[in-house]
Amino acid sequence: MLKTNHQNKVDIGYIIITLIFCSLTLPFIFSDNRYWEHDHVQFHLPNILQIRENWPRLDLLKDSLSAISPGYHYFLATISFLTGKSELNLRIINNIIGLSIPLLAYYYVRKYVNIKVALLLVFPLALSNFLIKSSLWIGTDNPAFLLVFLTLILIFDSTDNLSNLQGLKIAFLSALTTFIRQLNVFLVAPSILNIILLEEESIKFKINKQKFLLIFVSLLPLLVIFILYTAWGGLVPPQWKSASVQFSFAPIAYILAYWGFIAPFYLSGIIKNIKEYINNKFIHFSFILGLLISLISKTTYSHEDGRWGGYIWTIVQKLPSIYDRSVFFIILAPLGSVFIAICCIKIKESVGLKKSILWLSSFLSWASTFIINRQIFPRYFETMILIFLIICLSYIWQDLSNNYHKIISISLFLLIIIQTIITVSLIF
User: Fold this and answer.
1) What number of other Cβ atoms are within 10 A of residue 338's Cβ?
2) Under a CB-based contact definition with an 8 Å cutoff, are residues 112 and 4 in contact?
3) d(CA 414, CA 397)
4) How far is CA 97 from the centre of its chain?
5) Below-50 pLDDT ranges, the chain
6) What is the domain range of residue 320?
7) pLDDT value at position 80?
8) Is residue 104 domain-resident?
9) Cβ atoms of residues 399 and 350 within 8 Å
10) Burial of 38 (0-12, 13-18, 19+ CB in 10 A)
11) Whose CA is closest to 363, among 334, 333, 386?
């Protein structure tokens, strides 16, 4: 695939994204507005200040005030010795980390497409109200997303010839992001697949001494989980076990339905010719799997069970259900599953089978970690779903016709307007 070389000149896209993002976040940060401060005030800021008092010592049991591992809190506590421990300074650092996500997305997309297309693909992410809100107050969502995204880029860009150094970088970043959020241990799966899967037209595996050593190193995130589990006596701190851990397929149904809701904006030109996929067995399997997942667990609105927050749950609350299974998920989860399958097919056609498998395995392993997550808040999902869609479109864009380009551009422009209206209305 042809890549766009833009490193030798100033790319105005970075400036545009930075200006728009900062115009939405900085006025709020420098104001007296305390909206959405709950988690920041109750858990994250006290956690940072507590670690700072005992730095460099870290007690995993006592210094884990939220349900998330204290890696990010330790990082901010360390940085605070240089910047000061004021709330404002820490919020600005957190805001910079939030900004880094759309900038990284833009950097990656620009390898494949021009400035206008790159901005179209990235703006729905940069303007996401969940990304913006997580950049206003200290939280672990954005740093976790940033490191996951960076790790996935390293994995996807090393499919041709993974070196020992690249393998070590991937393992280190995977372990680091797992220390920021335990569920990011999912990165072990695509990391190992990248090592053993050959770049062929059919699925072939190869393991030798070098690959075996890289596989062993790639298990480093499991060591992080083991250390946390030993300290906590579980996957979360003991005070959070009943509130955070519960086996359910409802989060998977939510993720698939969200795909069914937002993917058409990115895939509108492709799904226009849906007839070419009707006889595809992979599509049939995906549809049935999505339907089954939507029926396994309860998917009705329930504040008590963690199924609330965001416009999706607002819609679900107003729609009928069948035996506690919302029709919203029954309809959209199978569609979302089909759209994921279409992405896989198109990625295979554009950049090969291995990248397609790695993209799908990354998504599936990420989504599957939420089976044990009791709370289904949209801020856990939208950013990553948009990242997966952006990666997909960057791979396949140049192989799509100009007619597809026009249709997708129009639908993405509509999504950008919707995201802007939602975000601006919430902040201002």
Assistant:
1) 26
2) yes
3) 19
4) 14
5) 1-2, 4-6
6) 244-427
7) 96
8) no
9) yes
10) exposed
11) 386
One-letter amino acid of 417: I
Q: Distances from the Cα of 333 to the Cαs of 261, 275, 285, 290, in angstroms?
A: 9, 20, 13, 5
What pLDDT sits at residue 2? Answer: 43
Bridge partners of 197?
205
Residue 417, token pair as written in the block:
């307007």
**Whole-number pLDDT of residue 203:** 73
Buried b (16+ CB within 10 A) or exposed e, 189-204: bbbbbbbebeeeeeee
Q: For residues 347 and 381, what is the distance between their CA atoms, to the nearest angstrom?
A: 22
Residue 165 located in a structural domain = no
Token digits for 63? 């210094």
- Phi, psi angles (nearest 5°) of residue 161: -155, 90
Q: Which two tokens stand for residue 362?
A: 């990354």
Written as six digits, the tokens of 33 are 């507005």
- Whether 211 is in a domain gets the answer no
> What is the C-alpha separation between 350 and 394, in angstroms, rounded?
10
**Which of 330, 312, 313, 332 minimizes the C-alpha distance to 321?**
330
Residue 228 token pair = 């946390």
Residue 324 lies in a domain: yes
| Number of domains comprising the chain | 1
Helix (H) or strand (E) holding 80: helix 71-83
Quote the pLDDT of residue 1.
43
Residues 94, 367 contacting (CB under 8 angstroms)? no
Which pLDDT does position 144 carry in this prediction?
97
In angstroms, rounded to a whole number, what is the distance separating the alpha carbons of residues 106 and 222? 31
Helix axis angle for 209-218 and 188-196, nearest 10°, is: 170
- DSSP state, 44? I
